[in-house]
């Protein structure tokens, strides 16, 4: 599919009323196996970068020139830089070719208007709204494209009910004024457009899931949500691919997930209700809070007296309000567990706002200590697992590679199989890749990570695993898959050069032992 998407271009899916969800959904035209491509949108209708990414990301191919941990973004060419458009100075491009493409696609109509806005900070949804309004006004977007956008649910009554409609109208007014479109479109239409972008857009991500901005497209905005999805999205620049997580039958509805489905039931429900205005009745939610995400390591009544007292002192605080999001049960002990959970999720939210890695690590440690000392949290229960993910990122920023490695090994052994059972689950694949890159780095430093551990071979085994899984998670054509394969081939050559003729047999002989050592490293941190 090239150029602007119109719904008629997608031949592997069709739109129909959803029996399980509000409005319409997308359904499979054919039987599909797991790990297969369902459909691909090569150029979504509009993509808008976060303000922080406008300065270091190409506004055409979305290559992010900064960020990401060392070596984990091999798919970005070394030395890639972006340069601002000489006209508007707002959008940047990594090459003349990218600038030309963006110009042809619509920047030609937008550049002058954006140049008048100077360096005014514009939120990404307002920016997307402005771009759509200018393109509509100048005829770049035809009726044929405009109508499917306006068919999407705007949830105006829901916004009125939750008290945010006035804010939405204000943002829409801003977009209307900044795009000089008040003569063409009345405010209520622009407000409807803004509301539609807000509830139907997706996060623009790199192939390794770094968030860059938003994507709005009438086809992509049709996928409904399930906490037990049968599909997922991966991106590669502006290209969005929808792939199967499970086999899908002809005429079956395709579901992606809008949220982190590893969270407990009450949290998922609250998030979906407040951002998308529905009560999820997916196959998982239908069963209630009895799934693996809701497990505690011990029963509430078996918590130690010390922690029961600690929970009572939290409950006694004037500002304490666990809300339905932390509901655990009605007994006194379950209320105590809810209080502790409230605190740990609060710590998690707070550490995420901190930009200094050392400060973040302190807060993460505090949160993890709660999870460990209460004895309540299994390794995979949130936000314990998410705190560990953030610990790894921050430890890497601080250069604490060996501790980061120990956390990676634990996550790999105990958390991945539980939270992401499919070996090709995209989150599992990307995290394993980052772990492989860390192993490679540790191999280069000759660090003694564990007696007899051969970090180069461990890295090679992990890369092999990612190479196989990424064909299903990202697809053979994705830049990530290609760079993983290239890295694997490069290492194969290096091993053969080093070990000579019997290299392949020697590596195969040694791998089971290194696999055992890797598993043991998952136990070295205690909890
Ligand atoms: C991105 S849109 C999906 C397309 C939408 N069904 C439509 O007809 O335009 C998101 C909206 O779809 C509905 N929706 C998505 N998943 C749902 C689900 N699991 N149950 C009920 N409604 C759902 C909600 O109204 C939500 O705000």
From TrEMBL:
<dbReference type="InterPro" id="IPR001214">
    <property type="entry name" value="SET_dom"/>
</dbReference>
<keyword id="KW-0863">Zinc-finger</keyword>
<keyword id="KW-0862">Zinc</keyword>
<feature type="domain" description="MYND-type">
    <location>
        <begin position="58"/>
        <end position="111"/>
    </location>
</feature>
<dbReference type="InterPro" id="IPR050869">
    <property type="entry name" value="H3K4_H4K5_MeTrfase"/>
</dbReference>
<dbReference type="GO" id="GO:0005634">
    <property type="term" value="C:nucleus"/>
</dbReference>
<dbReference type="InterPro" id="IPR046341">
    <property type="entry name" value="SET_dom_sf"/>
</dbReference>
<protein>
    <submittedName>
        <fullName>Uncharacterized protein</fullName>
    </submittedName>
</protein>
<dbReference type="InterPro" id="IPR002893">
    <property type="entry name" value="Znf_MYND"/>
</dbReference>
<dbReference type="Pfam" id="PF00856">
    <property type="entry name" value="SET"/>
</dbReference>
<keyword id="KW-0479">Metal-binding</keyword>
<dbReference type="GO" id="GO:0008270">
    <property type="term" value="F:zinc ion binding"/>
</dbReference>
<feature type="domain" description="SET">
    <location>
        <begin position="11"/>
        <end position="259"/>
    </location>
</feature>
<dbReference type="Pfam" id="PF01753">
    <property type="entry name" value="zf-MYND"/>
</dbReference>
């Amino acid at each position: 599919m090239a150029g602007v998407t119109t719904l008629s271009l997608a031949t592997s899916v069709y739109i129909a009323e959803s029996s399980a969800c509000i409005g319409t959904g997308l359904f499979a035209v054919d039987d599909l196996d797991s790990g297969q491509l369902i459909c691909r949108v090569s150029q979504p209708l509009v993509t808008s970068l976060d303000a922080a990414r406008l300065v270091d990301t190409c506004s055409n191919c979305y290559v992010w020139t900064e960020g990401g941990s060392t070596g984990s973004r091999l798919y970005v060419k070394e030395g890639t830089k972006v340069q601002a458009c000489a006209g508007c100075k707002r959008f940047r491009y990594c090459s003349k070719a990218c600038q030309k493409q963006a110009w042809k696609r619509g920047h030609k109509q937008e550049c002058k208007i954006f140049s008048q806005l100077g360096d005014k900070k514009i939120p990404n949804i307002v920016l997307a709204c402005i771009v759509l309004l200018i393109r509509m006004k100048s005829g770049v977007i035809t009726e044929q494209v405009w109508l499917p956008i306006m068919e999407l649910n705007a949830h105006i009554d829901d916004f009125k009910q939750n008290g945010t409609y006035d804010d939405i109208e204000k943002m829409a007014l801003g977009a209307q004024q900044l795009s000089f479109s008040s003569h063409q479109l009345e405010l209520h239409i622009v407000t409807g457009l803004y509301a539609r972008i807000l509830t139907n857009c997706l996060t623009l991500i790199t192939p390794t899931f770094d968030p860059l901005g938003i994507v709005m497209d009438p086809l992509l905005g049709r996928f409904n949500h399930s906490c037990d999805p049968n599909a997922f999205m991966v991106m590669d620049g502006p290209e969005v691919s929808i792939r199967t997580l499970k086999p899908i039958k002809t005429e079956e509805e395709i579901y992606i997930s809008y949220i982190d489905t590893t969270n407990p039931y009450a949290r998922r429900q609250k998030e979906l209700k407040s951002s998308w205005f529905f009560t999820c009745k997916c196959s998982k939610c239908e069963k209630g809070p009895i799934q693996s995400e809701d497990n505690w390591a011990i029963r509430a009544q078996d918590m130690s007296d010390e922690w029961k007292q600690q929970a009572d002192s939290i409950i006694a605080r004037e500002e304490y309000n666990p809300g339905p999001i932390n509901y655990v049960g009605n007994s006194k002990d379950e209320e105590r567990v809810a209080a502790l959970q409230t605190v740990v999720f609060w710590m998690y939210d707070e550490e995420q706002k901190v930009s200094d890695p050392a400060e973040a690590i302190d807060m993460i440690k505090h949160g993890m200590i709660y999870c460990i000392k209460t004895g309540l949290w299994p390794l995979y229960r949130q936000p314990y697992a998410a705190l560990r993910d953030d610990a790894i990122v921050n430890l890497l920023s601080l250069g604490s590679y060996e501790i980061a490695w120990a956390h990676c090994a634990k996550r790999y052994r105990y958390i991945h199989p539980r939270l992401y059972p499919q070996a090709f689950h995209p989150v599992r694949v990307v995290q394993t890749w980052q772990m492989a890159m860390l192993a490679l780095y540790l191999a280069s430093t000759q660090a003694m990570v564990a007696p007899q551990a051969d970090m180069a071979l461990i890295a090679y085994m992990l890369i092999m695993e990612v190479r196989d899984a990424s064909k299903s998670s990202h697809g053979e054509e994705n830049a990530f898959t290609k760079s993983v394969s290239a890295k694997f081939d490069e290492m194969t050559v290096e091993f053969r050069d080093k070990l000579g003729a019997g290299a392949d047999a020697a590596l195969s002989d040694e791998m089971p032992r290194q696999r055992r050592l890797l598993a043991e490293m998952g136990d070295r941190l205690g909890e």
